[in-house]
Amino acid sequence: MSSREKKKQERQDRIDSLIKKEEEGALIFSKQFLFGAKLNTDGWAAVYEHGKYKTLNTTNLWWVEIGERKNPKEERKTVFLSNGLQVGNPFVYGKINNFYFLKLGIGQQRLIGGKGNKNGVAVSLNYGGGITAGYLKPYFLTVADSIGNVSDIKYSESTASIFTDPSAIIGSAGFTKGFSEGTFSPGAHAKIGLRFDYGRYSEVVSAIEVGINAEYYSKKMPIMISSTDKSFFFNAFIAIEFGGRK
Predict the structure, then answer these.
(1) Is the CB of residue 109 less than 8 Å from the CB of residue 125?
(2) How far apart are alpha carbons 13 and 8 in whole angstroms?
(3) Exposure class string for 80-111: b at 16+ Cβ within 10 A, else e
(4) Best CA proximity match to 100, nearest among 128, 152, 139, 154
(5) Where does the pLDDT of residue 52 fall: very low under 50, low under 70, confident under 90, or very high at 90 and above?
(6) Quick one: three-class SS letters along 156-175?
(7) At 134, phi and psi to the nearest 5?
(8) Backbone CA torsion sign across 224, 229, 230, 234
(9) pLDDT-derived band of residue 147, with 50, 70 and 90 as boundaries?
(10) For 20-40, b where at least 16 C-beta lie within 10 A, e where not — what string?
(11) Residue 46 φ then ψ, to 5°
């Protein structure tokens, strides 16, 4: 038997042993942790999740998530000179705020399929909710007036005519501009999803999760000039997750 075949057999023997222990009612792991990258229908997020196994089918979870919520009407534009050279940074026309969020949540993971599957693929229902903090950072544009003076401005009643004048816009003022001028809004969130774990009997977590998420904030969160401001957000997501279990 080659070393490769030997390792494969040892892995299968270990899986068989874990399945037998599980059939006898024993917890084969006690806790898990994972990091995930999440693509939402209205933005993106990064998540850290910690889980503690309570029964063979139930794991208690808590998580922290940070990301950005975007408007579907956002479209990046770039200003070019007649010779084709780019002027300024790419910008989103009509955008007035960047909307970032931080979530803290608790929930559960319930195994609904794949128990005893020797390939180690398991399907779980994940659900829960918690608190969230929304942060609106003013979106600054670099603009030029009729005599060529250049300045960075944010949207207000006094700058609305310049902010929405394409001929005056040079580009975005940059990612860091405006962080000290942002405002927070507290809120709550809830989510439910299906997780497909491709290493159920492995100490390495490798999974894909799909689901839906809902958030409500204490005040309206304006992102674009041309859109209705709202405090409730509903979206779907897909996440790629990696981590470990002990």
Answers:
(1) yes
(2) 9
(3) eeeeeeeebbebbbbbbbbbbbebebebbbeb
(4) 139
(5) very high
(6) CCCCHHHHCCHHHEEEECCC
(7) -95, 140
(8) negative
(9) confident
(10) eebeeeeeebeebebebebeb
(11) -120, 140
Contacts of 195 (CB under 8 A, 6+ apart): 109, 123, 124, 125, 126, 207, 208, 209, 241
Identify the CA nearest to 69 among candidates 97, 105, 106, 37: 97
Q: d(Cα 75, Cα 71) in Å, to the nearest integer?
A: 9
Which of helix, strand or coil describes residue 225?
coil
Interval 185-219: pLDDT, tens:
999 999 999 999 987 777 888 999 999 999 999 99
pTM here is 0.88
Rounded to 5°, the CA angle 167-182-73 comes to: 45
Burial class (CB in 10 A: 0-12, 13-18, 19+), 114: middle
Give the Å distances, CA to CA, from 170 to 79, 84, 100, 165, 243.
6, 14, 25, 11, 44
- Asked if 102 and 182 touch (Cβ cutoff 8 Å), the reply is no
Taking every pair of Cα atoms in the chain, the longest distance, rounded to a whole number of angstroms, is 82
Paired tokens of 204: 């390495």
Inter-CA distances, 204 with 33, 64, 76, Å: 10, 20, 39
